[in-house]
Amino acid sequence: MYAGATLVVLLVLVLALVPLFARRARAVDRRLFLWGGGVALPLLTLTALVPYVMRVGHESRAPLPTDRLSVEVTGHQFWWAMAYRRAPASAVVASANELRLPAGERVELLLRAGDVIHSFWVPNLAGKTDLVPGRVNRLVLRATRPGVYRGQCAEYCGLQHALMAFDVVVVPRAEFDLWLAHLARPVPPPAAPELRQGRALFDSLGCSSCHTVRGVSRGTLGPDLTLVGARRTIAAGALHGGVGNIAGWIASAQHLKPGNAMPSYDQLTGTQLRALAAWLESLQ
Amino acid sequence: MTTPPVDAAQAAPVLHPQSCGPDGLERLRIAWAKPRRFAFFTEVNNTHIGLLYIATGFLFFLGAGVLALLMRIQLAEPGGGFLDAEQYNQVFTMHGTVMMFLFAVPIVEAIAVLLLPSMLGTRDMPYPRLSALGFWSYAVGGVMVFASLFFGVAPDGGWFMYPPLTSLPYSPGINTDVWILGLGFVEISAVAAAVELVVGILKTRAPGMTLARMPVFAWYVLVTAGMIMIGMPTVIAADTLLELERAAGMPFYDATRGGDPLLWQHLFWLFGHPEVYIIFLPAAGMVSMILPAFVRVRLVGYGWIVVAAVAVGFLSFGLWVHHMFATGLPLMSLGFFSAASSAIAIPMGIQVFAWLATLWEGTPQLRPPLLFLLGFLVIFTMGGVTGVMVAAVPYDWQVHDTYFVVAHFHYVLIGGMVFPLFAAIYYWTPWVTHRLLSERAGRWAFWLMFVGFNAAFLPMHLTGLRGMPRRVYTYDGGLGWSTLNLVSSIFSFVFAAGVLVVVMDFLLHLRRPRIAERNPWGAPSLEWLGGLSDYGLRSLVSITSRYPLWEQPDLEEEETAGRGYLPDAPTREREALLTGPLSSEPEQILRLPGPGWTAFVAAVATAAVFAAMTLRLRVLGIVAGLVAAGAYGGWLWSLDPAQPRGLADAGRGLALPLYRNDTGSVGRWGLMVLLVSDAAVVASFVFAYFYLWSGQPGLWPPEPAALPSIGAPLLAALLTLGAWLGFELADRRVRRERGRAAGVCLALSTLLAAGALVVGVRWLGAMGVDPAAHSYGAAVWTLVGYVGLHVALGAAMALWCLVRLGLGMIDSWRRVTLDVCLLWWRFTLPATLLVLLIVAGFPRAA
Fold it and tell me: What is the mean pLDDT of residues B547-560?
């Protein structure tokens, strides 16, 4: 396709330049220009493209048997909620800002918008599909090779559209099933005193009213944090993971990503911040 | 050639004899002289308005260009800190908005307003005050929208303004209202200019200039104006619905109350895609005019090009969905729109190869205008080729909303419109200023712009393919986008330097001496006969060729000796010839209004009304509204002035009427064209009604008890029918000089229309649907409200005619006012019946 495009451009370039150098009027076959260049050339090009247009990418809309893994992806300003369902009857398990997929398996994504229009795009896996309020769009994905792929919002969705990314982590199927079972379980009670303080702060600061941590809280206004410590990035791809960045994010979320829904908790002492971040980091 | 109606001329003495001597020239000068000092704002002549229009558009181009540079500074490195997210979002929104709405469309219309009358061999546009209104509305409205940037309240929802992001909950500030109201206002002025251009092209061509001899630019502008007539109303309708949702809570786009965000996308792109061709076609028209002058041969394939332009006009309305491939629409419909989008490559290919063939037939002279044209051909072709790629659905799913698309449409728009514009600047500047721009500066500017453009935008294709989305104020350094962005940023400044060279060249050239020759390029088209002056041609010439300056050697002598038509202004009023739309035979002498404050005051007052609505300033809104109403009222009252019944001298022994009361009157033509736009608004609202229903089957109306009654709409329909009938009868009576009976009919028509309004309002009330509760109510209220507005205006027109009838300003001869109002009713009646049928009948059928 790119070669064909280059040829067309070169053809026009040459045709435009030749008369400049051959400084003498020519008798021109007008029919060759108008019928040949004007009609036949675009027509042939378009015809050549038909098979590509009709076939490529259409499997992303293909119907699926209903006993497969489906993930409900909901776009929010400016983060992603993911809810996994292994089979129609099984329970829904929520996560956020990271999509885990079993390698080689076709997965149905059900795309919804929580507020405004977003667009789900993982360039290395499929084209983009919009998340539109009032609609549920389907996208069928099949990632063949394990690895990490970057995804991001591709429809302008407001102030922090630029910082609305996510990771797609493709793992072997057995590993995926283990992970999903792990995700569904309540987090274990903290062992170390610092972690216990962190968990207490999670409640007393009101974190729990917005965030879910399985077995701890049920907030839904912000991302589910059940396995946040295991994620490569936090704040929808705005920062790399790790205890330092988690602490930084809690203290200055509005500075790092102005206009997102999370307030900056800049009144916390260093000890409190470290304890809270450490507990969250321990959720792996 | 023209045959004067001899028998008519002999029947009565001919009024106002014309003189082709110096006394005639003196009167012509006086009639068309520009007013001085503050009266600057009162001039309505197309050369004055056209130049101001172009200058304003170019300033917006520079302003939006600076915004582009700000973005390029921000994106030069990952994590840039030059702008914050809020500023960046306002800047990119305003860059697109200003370039599309305040630069590209206005400036191509402005060029047409400036050049067309001269190309067509007439003295002015048919409605000079309308051009002035359009320009001042655009200038004042545009400046207000642009100024919002300096107050930090600039629109920030993207130039496409997708709800629900732009709905009240997610955009509570006035930023969005600035966009909707400010640009809604500017769009109305674009429609005004389009009315003007259509009627100008069809009715004011030089005698003998048949459609087939029309300069090809006029064809392109005719198609473009037609597209504006149909395209702009859909976005005005979409804007209206969005503002109704924001201000009155009527949920058209809110999915939680039965609305649908995709309704906006359909309406917006139904306008937005033709918009691209609205910008491109006039530019292609300029290319087709400039090219022959530099290759010294006629354009190859004139007929092919005209057909291609018309085909583009039609096709462009059938491919809006290619902006929505990723929204989850069914694959079937995507396939259709993909095919339609690709098909446009054929008429485009025809135009490109017709230009190439013209180059081959001639002996090109590589002066700056031709240089820019060659740049256009290459860049535009590249944009076209990537256009075919993005028309393919699977490819689009990847590159949609990435920098690949940014690169694509800048190739199309900068290649397809900005390069021809700069060719036009180099080409027509001597026509305006009688001075040449510098060849050397032109070459520098071209190479800076050509290299800068390609080096800035070619890498963007790759940036997009590497996954960089559009409209992001920052990006991560580890994604392989950094170097590409840096290159784009650096070369965007090279491009800007090229633009700066042209600006400097233009300013400096004003100090150079004037050139002697009228036609420095030896161009073939009529505008080069006279050059720019207040009155245009000394006398209006007859045309027998498509390339009059090449093929009619005695034309110049005939024109300067005043041996053409209208060499004089015997009554010191401005005059132009009206000719038949097909025959181009002279039909009438059109008296044109001279300088006056009406248009300027009306524009500024209307702008103030829109500003007051945006800023929620009630008092200012009321005061400005009264001033505007006064200005429009006075203006309308001054229309259809008394004209003598006799024939007047038009020169060359031809006597023509000064007034027409049949279907050929310009007033009627103007309203007819405007009603096409109005029909597009009605169609948009009807589309909205059915589209919203299609998302809510079984919930229409949401409460089954609220099914609209049948009796009231039936009564309203009968009353409307009666009101229209009253108007028809009044028209018949007036034709037979039975003024009193006509008055009775008009009074009856007013009463019946008022009755229809009362019944309609009570019906809406009794229906018990809350327009803010569900999209059903919102759609019903909008439809009924819009036709109600028509009936109310119709009633006002009946009263208006009644008053003029009583004052003796309407009679069997002077009855264009009545005729135009009747035309309004002939549109209002079917529109009202259709809407009543849909609103009352459809929920029962569905």
Answer: 91
Query: What band does B560 get if pLDDT is binned at 50, 70 and 90?
Result: confident
Radius of gyration of chain A (CA): 26
DSSP A207: G
pLDDT-derived band at B12, boundaries 50, 70, 90:
low
Enter the tokens of residue B99. Answer: 């370039």
Whether B395 contacts B389, CB under 8 Å: yes
pLDDT digits (tens, 9 = 90+) for B289-341: 999 999 999 999 999 999 999 999 999 998 899 999 999 888 888 888 888 88
B255 in contact with A, Cβ within 8 Å: yes
Whether residues A160 and B85 touch (CB distance < 8 A) is answered with yes
In whole angstroms, give the CA distance from residue B268 to residue B275. Answer: 10
Task: Give a three-class secondary structure readout of B39-69.
Answer: HHHHCCCHHHHHHHHHHHHHHHHHHHHHHHH
Confidence check: pLDDT of B4 > 60: no
What token pair was written down for A39? 């009609």
Among A54, A135, A157, select the one facing B328 at the smallest CB separation: A135
Note if the bond before B610 is cis, omega within 30 degrees: no
Residue B78 contacts A where some CB pair is shorter than 8 Å: no
Model pTM above 0.80:
yes
Map residue B589 onto helix, strand or coil: strand
Nearest-CB residue to B394 (from A45, A127, A258): A127
pLDDT tens digits for B75-125? Answer: 999 999 999 999 999 999 999 999 999 999 999 999 999 999 999 999 999
Q: Which tokens sit at B4? A: 């004067």
- List, in order, residues 6 or more apart from B319 with CB less than 8 Å away: B273, B337, B340, B341, B344, B391
Q: Give chain B positions within 8 Å (CB) of A117.
A: 162, 164-165, 261
How much is the pLDDT for B618? 93
Instruction: For residue B462, give both structure tokens.
Output: 């790759």
Give the residue among B669, B592, B570 at the shortest CA–CA distance from B638. B592
Assess B338–A contact: CB distance below 8 Å, yes or no. yes
Tell if the CB–CB gap between A128 and B479 is shorter than 8 Å: no
Contact pairs from chain A to chain B, CB under 8 Å? 220
In Å, what is the CA distance from B69 to each residue of A4, B73, B329, B455? 33, 6, 36, 15
**Inter-chain CB proximity A38 and B469 less than 8 Å:** no
pLDDT tier at B474, thresholds 50, 70, 90: very high
From the list A43, A53, A157, which residue is nearest B338 (CB)? A53
Question: CB–CB of B153/B175 below 8 Å?
Answer: yes
- Cβ <8 Å between B474 and A37: no
Q: What is the pLDDT of residue B826?
A: 97
* Option in B308, B328, B472 nearest A162 (CB): B472
CA distance B307 to chain A (A): 12
B467, A150: Cβ pair inside 8 Å? Answer: yes
The C-alpha atoms of residue B687 and residue B257 are separated, in whole angstroms, by 18
d(CA A199, CA A190): 8
Whether complex ipTM tops 0.85: yes
Among the partner-chain residues B84, B158, B366, the one whose CB lies closest to the CB of A258 is B84
Residue A205 pLDDT greater than 50, yes or no: yes
